[in-house]
Design goal:
Two copies of one chain form a homodimer. Chain A is of the alpha/beta class. Chain A is 33% helix and 22% strand. The relative contact order of chain A is 0.12.
């Protein structure tokens, strides 16, 4: 049996690579069912693939506008079988899962009990995972993947019990993006009446971030969406002062549209999951402002060199998915903002 | 002749891609010699390739430990000819250049005159560039590339005059990394006696960041280097309280070594140009601390998901190469810190 002394709360003991790296950076994880003393095993019900990852897979396996579901399923199965975790090799991202605790190691500090229904708040890109049903129940048409199997949580992993009063799919959906509103609120609360621009304001992390920005004291809240249908939805959700339609990949169009709506942002939050939005986000942010990137499609060098190339004095933050209390805060925003709830329910 | 009304201070008018993106994100730039009214043309003397880019090219064109200089030169020439700029397709990064102003457009606001010797402070990854001498003077053994040709600066580009009292190669070397000390100083100055860890403290951006951290009020300054020879150099430069030898790619070794030296860091600055340092940097940073990534080898998703996966409440900042006054500040640090100057001169 694995011994405590071999283990590390980061999960290092499950890394099979020759070079000693953390599980997130590893090529391959040990998925043995037996637990180290501080681990927890979860019986999986559903995976929720990260949006950037799912879009990439969808693009790759579409031919003439038609998705090939068998090929998409086969690739996910192959990744998980090969790597022992669901980490998209292109985007580096994973997603999260919902399941039921089936065993708790004697030294676990995660405060979970057998039978608890939980969502993992650490990425699938570092979570040992075994799929046992060949994904037979997944139609490959959405990032929600019904799935039989098991996953392992480490000593330092984060998981949240699913609230009783919310449908599980709704909880999963909220917890998947719960780092965004918590970090947005933290940045906004440090400023006086800032103007906040949320690019991708109609999406999951975007709508929560809009609600968080207003609650944390934003003076003006601007939501940017890609087309009129989404603008109508966001307008009726009553989460922002201005709704703007612009293509976030067109930097000049984005800059000009945000300026017209009362921008630039003292705080700009990027919540869209397509590549190439760095330049526009920089131009939509005021001199001395802060830019938070939550999109997994963000390119580090495009952000760093883009700001330098524009002589833009903006503080750019990598959207850390973990902020203490983030899951409870996001669930609370959903409970107290009918507009957020409607947008989420409309996407299930 | 190009008209003012067609131009944009971001250089958008020189982007040849079908999709409207900024010059940094573009596949290909228009390198015509004729200037738009707010542009400046520089006669190039020397390129300084970004360290991450040069290492990648070096690795790619090495066989059995031997670099093939012809192949390396050919690839740089091919990139510049194809893209109209020097942007490494793998790392996305560029570098900078030194040259002499040869024409100033009538509407330029860069405050430059014909004959000024300047270093560009915007990346080569967005600077229209034409190489005219086939890089005949470059031995391909270092990132400093003697070069005949011309480059174009946009209305919003940044360039600095080269100080008279410093050798041009020394100025170039300092200005290449001048964003790092300025941003480090800004973050450190907001805290009370913070412990500052600089990973890659013996390098160019690293040694300047160490000096900046101390000058901005750090309580304890720890420099991390990869091996003993560099530790000896850094120790004799007298820039930090502790010098630590650790492999930054080994997260657990880095965490433990930094802890032993008085860490973790309230501020951690990553200045190494190898991939895979995100996890260790996160573990070397205190809860609630700030992590600044200056390495162009940083992976956005590895940073975001790594912190989430470790449940690490750290604020992660993308090292923006532009901070107002950065060039003058870095040159001043070099002038006033003999230790910094010695390290730089040792690397020329």
């Amino acid at each position: 049996m694995p011994r405590a002394s071999d283990g590390d709360p980061t999960g290092l003991h499950r890394v099979l690579d020759e070079v000693r790296v953390l599980p997130q950076a590893a090529q391959c994880l040990d998925t043995r069912k037996e637990l180290w003393p501080d681990e927890v095993r979860v019986r999986v019900e559903m995976l929720n693939l990260d949006a950037a990852s799912f879009r990439q897979l969808e693009r790759k396996h579409s031919h003439g506008g038609e998705i090939d579901p068998d090929a998409l399923r086969a690739e996910v199965l192959d990744i998980v079988a090969t790597r022992g975790k669901m980490q998209n090799p292109e985007t580096g991202s994973g997603g999260m899962l919902v399941g039921t605790v089936e065993e708790v190691g004697p030294e676990s500090s995660l405060d979970l009990s057998v039978g608890d229904r939980v969502a993992t708040l650490v990425s699938l890109s570092l979570t040992p995972l075994v799929i046992e049903d060949g994904l037979a129940g997944w139609d490959a048409a959405s990032e929600r993947v019904p799935c039989e199997g098991y996953a392992v949580l480490f000593g330092r992993s984060i998981a949240a019990r699913i609230p009783d009063d919310l449908a599980p799919e709704l909880s999963l959906s909220v917890m998947d993006v719960c780092g965004a509103p918590a970090l947005t609120a933290r940045v906004v609360a440090d400023l006086v009446d800032p103007t906040v621009v949320v690019i991708g304001g109609g999406g999951k992390s975007g709508s929560l971030s809009l609600a968080a920005a207003r609650q944390a004291g934003a003076g003006r809240v601007i939501g940017v969406v890609p087309h009129q249908a989404e603008a109508d939805l966001l307008t009726s959700a009553e989460l922002c002062d201005e709704v703007v339609v612009a293509d976030a990949r067109d930097p000049i169009a984005l800059r000009d549209a945000v300026a017209k709506a009362g921008g630039p942002g003292d705080v700009t939050v990027v919540c869209v999951d397509v590549p190439g939005c760095e330049g526009g986000a920089i131009l939509a942010t005021a001199d001395g402002g802060t830019l938070i990137f939550f999109s997994m499609a963000t390119s580090f060098s495009a952000a760093a060199l883009g700001a330098e190339g524009l002589g833009a004095d903006v503080t750019m933050i990598v959207g850390n998915g973990y902020v203490p209390g983030h899951a409870a805060y996001a669930v609370e925003l959903l409970r107290t903002h009918q507009g957020v709830r409607s947008l989420f329910e409309g996407r299930l």
